[in-house]
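Reproducibility note. Readers wishing to regenerate the assembly model reported in the main text can use the exact inputs given here. Chain order matters: entities are listed in the order in which they were concatenated for prediction.
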Amino acid sequence: MTGEFTAPLQGGTALEATGLAKRYRGTWALRDCSLSIPAGRVVALVGPNGAGKSTFLRLAVGLIEATQGSVRVFGEPVGQRAAALARVAFLAQDKPLYDGFTVAEMLRFGRRLNPGWDDALARQRLAELDIPLRRKVGRLSGGQQAQVALTVAVAKRPDLLVMDEPLANLDPVARHDIMRSLMTAVAETRMTVVLSSHVVSDLNDTCDWLVVLNRGQVQVSGEIDELLSTHHLLSGPVGLADGMAARTPVISDSRTERHAALLARTGTGAPLLDPRWEARGVGLEELVLAYLRRPDAAVLPRPTLTRS
Amino acid sequence: MVVINLRLDPGSGVATYLQLVHQVKQALRLGVLMPGDQLPTIKEVVADLAINPNTVAKAYRELEREGLVAGRPGLGTFVQRSLGGGVTADHTAHRRDLARWVRGCREAGLDHEDMQALFTSVLTDSLREDIA
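Running the prediction on these inputs yields the following structure tokens for the assembly.
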């Protein structure tokens, strides 16, 4: 156990939801949501509009109360102790910035509100990004504003950073820059990150844990590398497709008169196949789309629970 | 001094941590990286490629597991030994064999992609036999 790259500092579970549900008036925004996310992960929360992503994130940081079930952050029920709250930072979709403030005033504001504030870290990040401290926030570009909001959240030195659509309304370069700064911050602080996004391609290589929410329920929760290595796109003669579907969970199924292409959860290792089948690996985007199109394929790939 | 820059091929379909492992091994095979050389720090790779630090850590752990590199706390990750099956003289001979094979294919009317497909498929088959 030496070197910079041996195991993440934290072990254990960062976030654990048990039977979590939220009802707004007559409608369930989230139903029976149970999942467990190990500490030190960068979690992508994806799902269509109205799937319950924002609701889940707001429950996780204690901004709203659950109708049923519970959520724990680092083992503690959310929203009961101020000290526990200080371990969590939340970046809402409408960036929590004041247009009339200068960047320096934003930092002063952050320092006032947060006991663990790391001013040196904030200033160093902004200097690296060439963001002038004297400029009014309202006069920064969208990408720079997002960077300032992220800096304020990171300088709080949270153990868990929760972000609701941090990449929305940003151009591709700004999205890439934000993900780069986020990754650098993760490398420096080893914090756990949960972020929701619509753009799955931005999450490739940046997130290592995937949670798919669909119609208010958890459809997938697992390590991305493991999910990718346990799903394959199988193509072969259509006559064999039913037999394959009977043996293997099929997420997406597209058939022509002669040919079938099945995105299937084949499990680890190379799938044992009739030579008439051809198997290839799948990408994250392909996998997410396949699940989103089949909300009934409520397959919860193992492991859904933390392995310590 | 850091000797190599790691790069990614997003279209390759190969898991990112494996791409990093392969690149370091390739550099070791070609003698670009030598024992004592330092790999870029995780933070440097992350800032460079905008990827998850856990991915870089996973790649470096894999290289460490194979005894190719070692992490020194607070200093970084250093190459322990070079890589390359056989001796360099053998490489030359294999290269000559391969060149002969390519000439043969060409004469038989195979183009660049045909040959690549053939080579990859033979390589994959032989890897499968190793696993099986």
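We highlight two features of this model. Confidence is low (pLDDT under 50) at residues 1-9, 301-308 of chain A. Chain A touches chain B at residues 2-6, 8, 40-42, 176, 179-180, 183-184, 186-188, 204-208, 225, 228-229, 270, 280-281, 283 (CB under 8 Å).
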